Amino acid sequence: LLQSSRERTWRIQDALAAEPALANYHRLPSVGGDLLVKLGRHAEAIEELQGALAMTDNAREQNLLWKRLKQARFLADARLGHILDRRTQADLAVQILPE
How does DSSP classify residue 31? Predict the structure, then answer.
């Protein structure tokens, strides 16, 4: 149920990202990156978080985004993917990126 809720939320977020008025709103890809990590879609999460990082000049936000980006890269590590099953990866993502 939680996974399907996250999928629906991702679809809404993805639709919002297509809105021209939100094209430079860095929080949108930031949220998208968090959702993708929780969905186990780490490569896409990394792209979203990198995009968010490129959109902001705020040092605090950059620090937070760098932290999230490092965590997404950790979870995307090919060796980790072989060691941990998807359920365990999802549990780690929730611990790293709380609801």
Answer: H
CB 34 within 8 A of CB 89: no
Which pLDDT tens digits describe the chain residue by residue (99 residues)?
666 787 888 888 888 888 888 888 889 999 999 889 888 888 999 999 999 999 999 999 999 999 999 888 888 875 555 556 666 666 666 555 554
Distance of CA 94 to the CA centre of its chain: 11
Cα-Cα-Cα-Cα dihedral sign, residues 55, 7, 98, 75: negative
Instruction: Give Cα 11 distance to the centre of its chain.
Output: 13
* The two structure tokens encoding residue 62: 């950059």
**Exposure string (b/e) for 21-44, b if CB count within 10 Å is 16 or more?**
eeeebbebbbbbbbbbbbbbbbeb
Write the CA distances from 46 to 20, 24, 31, integer angstroms. Answer: 22, 18, 12
